[in-house]
Amino acid sequence: MLRNIWCGIRNLFRPGMLGASSLPNPEGDAMAVSMDECIRNCTECHIICLKTVTHCLGFGGKHADQAHIRMLLDCAQICATSADFMTRGSPLHQLTCGACAEICQQCADDCERMAEGDQQMLQCVEMCRRCAASCRDMAA
Fold first, then answer.
1. Is 20 inside a domain boundary?
2. In this predicted model, what pLDDT tens digit does every residue of 7-60 receive, in sequence order?
3. What is the tally of structural domains in the chain?
4. Which of 10, 16, 34, 42 could link 22 by a cystine bridge, Cβ 3.0 to 4.6 Å?
């Protein structure tokens, strides 16, 4: 359902909408695909980081350490912010994506250090790395 909402909003900013030129733009179409993928990655990363916070607080010990929980929440928030900037076509999305890439990488590294085979932590590591890579591409 959320994907349908995002696609609808994204379509408002595509050529041919809101008075924009309706001429085909292959380069723009490739960028839109990359941006759509990055929006999906940011949204999924946001969700998995929030789930990982709950998991870590329930697990306790070093998983519930204030610095670790803060990192997960920072990652979740910058992912949501970056997705918002891209969704509405903000020309400043490169700035948020650059910050998102850095924070996601740090979050992945932090989760990997304490994963010890825990599936939730490993899923968080994988998603944070995927998001970092796509945001790095969008920031370039």
1. no
2. 444 444 443 333 333 333 444 555 666 999 999 999 999 999 999 999 999 999
3. 1
4. 16
